[in-house]
């Protein structure tokens, strides 16, 4: 029997396993994926949003707690637990030293259109390098890792963890357990159930692309919900971004994201705009566009730019459709040419001339146009023109287990004495809706370490009681 059983193999699970081992506990980590696909969605991440009151190595200027909190409050629309959110925010000021200790290296962040040089610390080599570093550190510390081990259920008694049970019936007993097995974003049937049908009789989830791992089926999450665990979050809410419609069904990751939305216009398949493309900086708004596209007919949109925008955004992996006129572009992407020309003409006429600057919230906006474009509104008048077809890309879901700052799983508001949760399985406590770049890793790192520490202490206190009784 191990002191701590950790279920999952991503950032939160690894932080929990390493921390529990540092506390002196024996640790078994169970990863559903094979070794080559280990790491869950964390392998596709790039950075961590960090609070800091002054410049810190790769972070410039300052990003104080209150500004971080206001950014989070804005994107969630108030659907967040302020106490837990601030706990996460404060932990990001100091966690990078711990991360470095376990092999994670940081690089100066990208500048320009991403606007994250001040707020986010980038991993050298991306999420894959982070995952590999953590696995090396965990195994060097003596954490036992088992791959291709899918857990179908837990043996629980009055809210207490007894054992994890694999699909093949194998029991993995432990004195405590950390659940960090991700959400249900790869489970198409559950997504269909969560999103339902729209007014046209379509099932929007059928057109979703899964940006990350195919292994997050939500089996353990569903089991816990069926056990009557305290839950939080709307099953239809998720980190949902607009990705290239040509992206693979799974594991396309960051390179399939389309980052030129704020520099042009976005239309649906009726060639009509449907939202303010320039509402705010892209890292604060990119995660709303998947949901916006999901609500459009046939769950598709088209990001349209002209040649003035080329070089001002992260180029996607696939080239856009190119044309020398708006009408030719419409014909190439199968939109009604007359309506498309009208949409572009009305947008161009509504643009108020200002000082364009894609690195600040500039004064280029539209007037007497609905929906408005608040910033970076410049006429689409310089060929060639480009189009990128968009689909909703699900990263992770927000339905999860309700927690307090001890990361303990709760039943009727009573904390389990030895069962804890971290990562996507509880992110909905902080993210009721919306997203801002890097905060998912902030939540996973913070609560992974809390869960690991408390799981270890629970297990070791049980051992001490047993030894004292002998």
From TrEMBL:
PANTHER family: FAD-DEPENDENT OXIDOREDUCTASE 2 FAD BINDING DOMAIN-CONTAINING PROTEIN, FUMARATE REDUCTASE. It comes from the Bacteria. Residues 3-431 form the FAD-dependent oxidoreductase 2 FAD-binding domain. It comes from Acinetobacter shaoyimingii. InterPro entries: CobZ, FAD-dep_OxRdtase_2_FAD-bd, FAD-oxidoreductase_2, FAD/NAD-bd_sf, Succ_DH/fumarate_Rdtase_cat_sf. This is FAD-dependent tricarballylate dehydrogenase TcuA. Its cofactor is FAD. It holds the Pfam family FAD_binding_2. One of its GO terms (molecular function) is oxidoreductase activity. Keywords: FAD, Flavoprotein, Oxidoreductase. The gene is tcuA. The keyword ATP-binding does not apply.
């Amino acid at each position: 029997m191990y002191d701590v059983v950790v279920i999952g193999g991503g950032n939160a699970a690894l932080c929990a396993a390493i921390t529990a081992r540092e506390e002196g506990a024996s640790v078994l980590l169970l990863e559903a994926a094979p070794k080559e696909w280990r790491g869950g969605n964390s392998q596709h991440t790039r950075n961590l949003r960090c609070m800091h009151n002054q410049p810190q190595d790769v972070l410039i200027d300052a990003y104080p707690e209150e500004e971080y909190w206001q950014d989070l409050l804005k994107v969630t629309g108030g659907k967040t637990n302020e106490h837990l959110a601030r706990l996460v925010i404060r932990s990001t000021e100091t966690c990078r030293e711990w991360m470095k200790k376990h092999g994670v290296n940081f690089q100066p962040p990208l500048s320009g259109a991403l606007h994250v040089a001040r707020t986010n610390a980038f991993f050298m080599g991306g999420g894959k390098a982070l995952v590999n570093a953590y696995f090396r550190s965990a195994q060097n510390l003596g954490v036992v890792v088992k791959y291709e081990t899918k857990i179908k259920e837990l043996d629980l008694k009055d809210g207490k963890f007894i054992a994890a049970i694999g699909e093949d019936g194998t029991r993995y007993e432990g004195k405590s357990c950390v659940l960090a097995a991700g959400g249900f974003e790869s489970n198409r049937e559950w997504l269909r159930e969560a999103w339902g049908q729209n007014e046209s009789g379509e099932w929007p989830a059928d057109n979703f692309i899964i940006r990350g791992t195919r292994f997050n089926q939500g089996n353990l999450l569903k089991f816990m919900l069926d056990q009557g665990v305290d839950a939080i979050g709307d099953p239809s809410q998720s980190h949902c971004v607009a990705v290239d419609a040509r992206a693979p069904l799974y594991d396309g990751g960051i390179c399939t994201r389309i980052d030129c939305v704020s520099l042009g216009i976005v239309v649906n398949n009726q060639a009509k705009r449907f939202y303010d493309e320039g509402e705010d900086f892209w890292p604060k708004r990119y995660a709303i566009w998947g949901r916006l596209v999901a609500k459009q007919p046939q769950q598709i949109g088209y990001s349209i730019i002209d040649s003035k925008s080329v070089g001002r955004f992260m180029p996607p992996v696939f080239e856009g459709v190119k044309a020398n006129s708006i009408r030719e572009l419409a014909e190439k992407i199968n939109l009604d040419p007359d309506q498309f020309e009208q949409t572009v003409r009305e947008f161009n006429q509504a643009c108020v001339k200002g000082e364009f600057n894609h690195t600040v919230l500039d004064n280029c906006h539209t007037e007497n146009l609905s929906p408005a474009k608040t910033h970076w509104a410049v006429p689409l008048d310089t060929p060639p023109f480009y189009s990128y077809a968009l689909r909703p890309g699900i990263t992770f879901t927000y339905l999860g287990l309700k927690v307090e700052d001890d990361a303990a799983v709760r039943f009727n508001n009573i904390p389990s004495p030895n069962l804890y949760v971290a990562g996507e399985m509880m992110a909905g406590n902080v993210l009721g809706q919306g997203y801002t770049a890097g905060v998912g890793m902030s939540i996973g790192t913070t609560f992974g370490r809390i869960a690991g520490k408390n799981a270890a202490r629970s297990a070791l206190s049980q051992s001490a009681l047993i030894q004292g009784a002998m």
